[in-house]
Amino acid sequence: MTSLHATLKQTFKSIVSYHLFSLTMAPSIHPSVDFGIQKGDSNKAGGKLYCHCPNNKVEVTLGSNVAHNHACGCSKCWKPSGALFSVVGVLPADQVNVTANANKTHIIDPSAAIQRNACKACGVHMYGRIVTDHPFKGLDFVHTELSDSKGWQEPQFAAFVSSIIEQGFDPKGMDAVRQKFKKEGLESYDVLSPALMDLIATYTAQKSGKLSSKL
Ligand SMILES: N[C@@H](CCC(=O)N[C@@H](CS)C(=O)NCC(=O)O)C(=O)O
Ligand SMILES: [Zn+2]
Ligand SMILES: [Zn+2]
User: Which range marks the domain in which residue 68 is found?
Assistant: First the structure.
């Protein structure tokens, strides 16, 4: 074997083992981000979500697409097994109806701002509703991956990214997580996106009287 041949063989071997390593060892961000993000359909008009029970599934009917869909690294949002992040979007609460097996749902934490209604049997969060005075009151939080149909808005940004450390993720891996989001075209934030932070701040200023209620 020539030395050039040997070098090429070695290089090939290291490339293969590097990729095998990254394929097997890279933590899953979320299935909808790991292998590239699929763009949604702007004409998507809603659909149904189902819990993970094999039968008597909780069914939730959504009357519209979601907005502000995003990856959330917080400890409270539901994540599919093995994923570091949840993917969650919002839509008006009057567009969300439990259409089957409502008796199987319960509220995880009634004192939380977002009341997450989950299936008691499989644990999947079906929708989160804000019932108290809150900037996002009137919006429900849902996970469109629970749907059997496609075209839902794709994730737009990553929120509460540093929160994954609180759940045991090694801080040394954070650069790789943020780089992966960047590669997929998503900005990473440690709270919410600027648009949502501005909405919260505007609500607070209007409540305290620093800003007019009619902007
Ligand atoms: N670092 C905290 C952040 C929790 C948090 O503030 N989550 C956000 C994003 S979902 C929120 O709005 N929570 C309100 C709630 O859960 O009711 C954690 O990971 O538990
Ligand atoms: Zn279930
Ligand atoms: Zn969250």
Answer: 47-208
Burial of 59 (0-12, 13-18, 19+ CB in 10 A): middle
CATH at residue 75: 3.90.1590.10
Residue 5 within a domain: no
Residue 67 lies in a domain: yes
Q: What is the pTM of this model?
A: 0.89
CA of 37 to the centre of ligand 1 (A): 24
Angstrom CA distances, 17 to 14, 22, 26, stand at 5, 8, 13
> Which structure tokens are listed for 32?
């909808």
Which mutation among 69, 76, 140, 165 tests ligand 1's pocket best, with the greatest number of atoms within 8 A of CB?
Answer: 76
Beta-carbon-side half-sphere exposure of residue 211 (alpha carbons within 13 Å): 13
Tens of pLDDT, residue by residue, the chain (215 residues): 455 554 455 444 434 433 443 444 578 999 999 999 999 999 999 999 999 999 999 999 999 999 999 999 999 999 999 999 999 999 999 999 999 999 999 999 999 999 999 999 999 999 999 999 999 999 999 999 999 999 999 999 999 999 999 999 999 999 999 999 999 999 999 999 999 999 999 999 999 999 999 98
Structural domain contains residue 16: no
Residue 58 sits at the vertex; the CA angle it makes with 55 and 64, to the nearest 5 degrees, is 130
Choose which residue among 69, 70, 74, 161 to substitute to test ligand 1 binding: the one with the highest number of ligand atoms within 8 A of its C-beta: 74
Q: In this structure, which ligand is nearest to the CA of 78?
A: 3
Q: How many domains does the chain have?
A: 1
- How much distance in Å is there from the Cα of 58 to the middle of ligand 2? 6
